[in-house]
Structure formats: structure tokens, C-alpha cells
Amino acid sequence: MDQFDVVIIGAGAAGLMCAATAGSRGRRVLVLDSSKKVGKKILMSGGGRCNFTNLTIEPDNYVSANPHFCKSALKRYTQWDFISLVQRYEIAYHEREHGQLFCDESARAILDMLLAECDKVGVSLVKGCEITSISSLSGYQIQTVHNLYQADSLVVATGGLSIPTMGSSGFGYDIARQFGLKVLPQRAGLVPYTFSDQMKGVTERLSGIALPVSISCGEVTFSEQMLFTHRGLSGPVVLQSSNYWHPGETIVIDLLPGINAKNWLQLLKKEHSKGLLKNLLAKRLPKKLAHEWMMLYWVEVSEKAIGDLPDIQLNRMAEQLNGWVLKPAGTEGYRTAEVTLGGVDTDELSSKTMESKKQPGLYFVGEVMDVTGHLGGYNFQWAWSSGYAAGQYV
Ligand SMILES: Cc1cc2nc3c(=O)[nH]c(=O)nc-3n(C[C@H](O)[C@H](O)[C@H](O)COP(=O)(O)OP(=O)(O)OC[C@H]3O[C@@H](n4cnc5c(N)ncnc54)[C@H](O)[C@@H]3O)c2cc1C
Q1: Does 208 share its domain with 184?
Q2: Which of 65, 121, 203, 336 is deepest in the core (most CB within 10 A)?
Q3: Is pLDDT of 164 > 90?
């Protein structure tokens, strides 16, 4: 049996950050990962450039049953702490819109940096390791196919369920349940919508077209690019809104964000009274979208001059342009989702240490718990901050 102070399950973003932090405090740390290649999600993130954090990190950028839980960890290890680590390793990076920070070259630099930080403080790492059981007689016993490990603290950093081909598993949730912790239902987040009604054909025909829109889902509104795809709707604004969407709900799309469609149509009526509606709409919308939209809802007036339309009809059209109500059939699911919503209930954990309130020595960090960030580097920042928080105490 090999003895450690801390065993961490999962060598992803949160697990490696936790390992390096605990190791720097002189703790003997072992990280176990089922995958032969660690940090796969870091490598594939941000289109291979890893959007590793954001210049503006606020608790409002996170979805959780307890919106206050993330505050303490985010305050104690901030985006500036991670940026200064990146700078110490002389990793070149740049800012994109909305304060998103990406590597200039490759996400590999972030993974190499974390592995170097672990190496520096003597963290042991076992890859391709299958854990068969966990018990807690005195401390924790972690049985793998080849070995038995004993540790005072056990950190679960197994991530979420998204992209099953990347080594994702529900193992972290199983461990939580084994020790009596509540696990909230999971669903795919930061994921495109799919449609089964007449919108299916519409999105197929418009596939490849992108435009700036606002999407509201319940109380929350995002404004960014939307992309029509063969399968439905995607693009940053769609992914953002998907974190707030539940099956069966509608979304509301403002096709003309920042423009009062009612005033605009009235102006067109005055200035271009002989113009055909479908042509006039194409002044502000992609031509193919204007055409499809007219065919979908206003086919009987599409060949009419705007001057011939009664105001009541124009106003209805305007309302629909600023508030196009759609009901997604679902999402593309974990196959393409960037994150998993839900997970280990934060009520079960200390927001300061990430330790279980009822099972001493058991910690959860990163995506496995019910804290999910918006698109834009927020999920990695949560991995760094929660990993650091636990690393300070294990
Ligand atoms: C395509 C894609 C792009 C993304 N881009 C970004 C981005 O640019 N910016 C951003 O902030 N977020 C991004 N994310 C989200 C981000 O990758 C995750 O939120 C983050 O990696 C979570 O870190 P984690 O350490 O909790 O889990 P992970 O990084 O998923 O690590 C979990 C680790 O646990 C291991 N594991 C799982 N099960 C077991 C088991 N049974 N036994 C042992 N080990 C196990 C896995 O092999 C893995 O190494 C992206 C996600 C995807 C899928």
C-alpha cells in the first residue's frame, strides 16, 4: 500500500491546480487519472488556444443552485493570480472580445505549465489508472486495478459529462453518493439547440448564416452572434443562453437588437411605401433569412408593398422581429456540450475549502460540482479557483 497525504482523482484543470497548490505546501500528493493522456479538455479548449480566463470575473457569470457559493474561492484566487502565473511562464496570450484571454500559440502551453508546477513540488501522477473502489476506514483507501493507495485527504476532480470521448465519466457523482452527498440532476450546458418542428428545415436551409442577435431565456438575456446550422442554432449567444434553458421552455430572439422594429417599419412605410416587405427586411437581415422568415409567418403579404399593410399588421410583425419566440426540441447533448450543469450540491461543501461538510477529508473541485460558468474563460477560472481553495487545506 502506498501512503500519501492527498490523493486527487482527475488530472484536468482543477485537479492539477489543486495538486500544485497542495504540493507547494509540502503535502505528498498523488494524482490518478483514468485517461492515458491528461488535460485533454485543456488541449481542445478555445479551438486549441485555451480561453484560460477572463478579465472580468463576477459571481453573476456562474450558474448554480447557490449563486453565492463561488464568491469566496473566486476572490481568493482571481483571474489576476492565474494571469501572473501565465506571465511567469512567459506564455504569450491575447485578449479577444468580452475580455476573453487566449494563448497566442497553443493550449498545450497551459497544460505544460500546470504539469511543470506539479513536477516542481514533487506531485506523483499515475495515468491510465482504473479505480475499482474507495473506502474510508481511517483516511481514504483508493483501490486501483494495480495498487492500493492510502491518503488523509481525497479530492474528486473528475469533471463533468460533456464530450464522453474525452474521458468524461460520472464517477465523481458516484463517489459523492457513496458518501451520502446530494447530487443535483445534470444536463448539458454551453450547447447548441436542435429543432423538430418546421424550424428544422429553416435552419437547414439557412445553415452557415450568422448574425448578431439577443436571446432571452427566462430573465436572462445575451447579445452576440447566432449561427444557423444543419442541426439547429449555435454560436456564442446560443451557447450562453443554453445554460439557462430547460427542456420544454421557449427562447425569445431579438433579430434586430438595439433597433425598435416598430419605429423602423413605420419609417419604411413612410419612405418606401411601394417597397416589398421581403426586400425591405433584407436591408437589416441576411437576405436568405428575411426570405425564410417571411415564408414562415407572413407568406400572404410577402409580395405586397409595405404601404398597403395596415399598421396593426406591421406592429405585429415588428413585435415578432424584436421577439421571435422559438421552442427548441432539445440540445445536441453531451456529445458537443462544453460543460455539464448540475452535479455535487454545493450545500454539501464548504465554500472556503471545498470539503464535504459531512465527510471530513473529502473534497470536490472544478466542474464536478454544481457551479457552471458562462462562455468566455469562466469555467477554467472556476477550475483554478476551486482547485486552489482545496489545495490550501488538503
Ligand atoms: C470543447 C470544449 C472547449 C472548452 N473550451 C473552454 C474554454 O476555452 N474556456 C473555458 O473556461 N472552459 C472551456 N471548456 C470547459 C472546461 O474545459 C472545463 O470546464 C474544465 O476542463 C473543467 O475542469 P475539471 O478539472 O473540473 O475537469 P476536466 O478538465 O474535465 O478533468 C477531469 C479529469 O478527470 C479524469 N477522470 C474522469 N473520470 C475519471 C475516473 N473515473 N477516474 C480517474 N480519472 C477520471 C478525466 O480523464 C480528466 O482528466 C471547454 C470544454 C470543452 C468540452
Answers
A1: no
A2: 203
A3: no
